[in-house]
Amino acid sequence: MKVVQTKDTLSKIYLDAVRIRNQVFVVEQGVPLTREIDKDEAHCVHFVLYTNKNQPCGTFRLLPLTNGKMKLQRMAILSEYRQQGLGKLLVAEAETFAKRQGYNTILLGAQATAELFYEKLGF
């Protein structure tokens, strides 16, 4: 498994992130596409988790804020890869990246179904 990142909204990495988000949020959860792709896309760092066979399986984005804060958003794992610890891996990646960039706080807003997951990770 490897996690790669981009700020380039024309890159393959970004397009893989959008495909995962579309499948999870739009197709599975019924979120309107107009809400899923928003004005913050170009301001975020987008991350994609790839399997050892180079298949995209998870994603999240970090939105830089002020005062040393970043916001973790749009975290999604494709259904066939869930319950394997990949969400925890992605949160750890977000924390490591934020610290390396000089941010000291990660904020997030989670769906009710994901609250326990984030609470277990200290959020």
Automatic annotation (TrEMBL):
Q: Does Endoplasmic reticulum appear among the keywords?
A: no
Q: Which intervals hold domain N-acetyltransferase? A: 1-123
Q: Which Pfam families match?
A: Acetyltransf_7
Query: Mind listing the UniProt keywords for this protein, alphabetically?
Result: Transferase
Transmembrane residues, as ranges?
none
Q: Which InterPro entries match?
A: Acyl_CoA_acyltransferase (IPR016181), GNAT_dom (IPR000182), NAT_camello-type (IPR050769)
* Entry protein name: GNAT family N-acetyltransferase
Specify the species.
Enterococcus lacertideformus
Q: What is the lineage of its organism?
A: Bacteria, Bacillati, Bacillota, Bacilli, Lactobacillales
